[in-house]
Amino acid sequence: MDLRVMGLDPNVIDTLHELLDFSDESDKSHHAPSRAYIRDSKAMAATPADVKEYPDAFVFVLDMPGLKPDQIKVQVEEDNKLVVSGERRREKEKEPGVKYLTMERRLGKYLKKFALPENVNHDKISAVYQDGVLTVTIAKKPPPEPKKPKAIQVQVN
């Protein structure tokens, strides 16, 4: 249920989100997933992406509207996992006499993780953000040279 539809003040909603957004380190239950895991899972499901393979590169295209370039992180973890993340928070504008009637634009965390193949070149990664779309390009390593057969000369004794 969206609390904004019920007419609650956006500041109250922000405060509720901040109160509920605490770590589960004190939670002793090992059976339920943590809030962080649930939040990340929802963010991954809500971040649309396309992945394209070209002869010389892999291209990852993600919709991340409303973010500024400094709010986006692109990382390669463990040499084989591309992690793209960002977070859009509502501006804390205090305009007297103004209240939201409708809030439909997406706020919150953006997150996507991709397993990278072994033939990516970790030294040739670029990211471009334009019009709310992030494009990450990772060059492929050149294919290995085919091994030439080794000729062994037979000696006569």
Automatic annotation (TrEMBL):
Q: Which GO terms describe its cellular component?
A: cytoplasm
UniProt-listed InterPro entries: A-crystallin/Hsp20_dom, HSP20-like_chaperone, Small_HSP
Protein name (Swiss-Prot/TrEMBL): SHSP domain-containing protein
Species annotation: Fagus sylvatica (Beechnut)
Superkingdom assignment: Eukaryota
**Is the keyword Ubl conjugation in the record?**
no
Start and end residues of each SHSP domain: 40-157
Family according to the record: Belongs to the small heat shock protein (HSP20) family.
Q: One GO BP annotation here?
A: response to stress
For this UniProt entry, which residues form the secretion signal?
none
